[in-house]
Amino acid sequence: MSIDSIKAALPDYAKDLKLNLSSLANDIVLTPQQLGGTFIACAIAARNPAVTHALTAEYGPRLAPAALEAARAAAAIMGMNNVYYRFVHLVGGDYAKLPARLRMNVISNPGVDKVDFELWAMAVSAINGCGLCMESHERQLRAAGLTTEHVQTAVRIAATVNAIAVTLEGVELPA
Prior knowledge:
One of its GO terms (molecular function) is disulfide oxidoreductase activity. Antioxidant protein with alkyl hydroperoxidase activity. Required for the reduction of the AhpC active site cysteine residues and for the regeneration of the AhpC enzyme activity. Its EC number is 1.11.1.28. Keywords: Antioxidant, Disulfide bond, Oxidoreductase, Peroxidase, Redox-active center. This is Alkyl hydroperoxide reductase AhpD. By secondary structure, the chain is mainly α. The chain has one domain (3-171): AhpD-like. The chain has helices spanning 3-9, 15-25, 32-46, 49-59, 65-91, 105-108, 114-128, 131-143, 148-171. The longest helix is centred in the middle third of the chain and has 27 residues, at 65-91.
C-alpha cells in the first residue's frame, strides 16, 4: 500500500483529503526526515492500520533506521503523555504540582535531532488533543528556530492523516 493506494481508497466525498495528501506529500517546507517522520508518527497516532501501513511503506525506506524508530517512539511516548498531561491541564488543582513519575527518557535522547522529535511529538499531540503538550512542544520548536510555517505544516499533516484515517474507518463499515 502507498499514498496512491490511500487516495484510491478514499471516496469521492473526501476529494479534499486526496488533494491535501498530494500537496503535503510534496511539501518542501520540512526536511525529508521531518516530513517522513511526521507522516509516520501521525499515522500511528491516528490508529488506522491501513493508513499506518501505507505511510510507513511510503516513508519508512526514506528514513534512516534511527529516524524511523524515533518517529514510532514519538507516537508511543505522546500516546502516554497526552493522556496524562491533558488530565493535569483539564482537571487542574494540585496535580500539576506532583511529579508525573512516568518514564520519558526517549524525549531527552530520541536518537535523532531533538527538533525533529519535538516536531513529531507536537503533531501527535495535535491528533491526541493535548493543549498543554502542543503549547510546550511549539515553544521548544520556535526556540530551536523553526518557523510558524514549519509548525503549521506538521499540524496540517496531522489533520489530514487523522481525517483520512477517520474517513477510511467509515468506508470500511457496512452500508
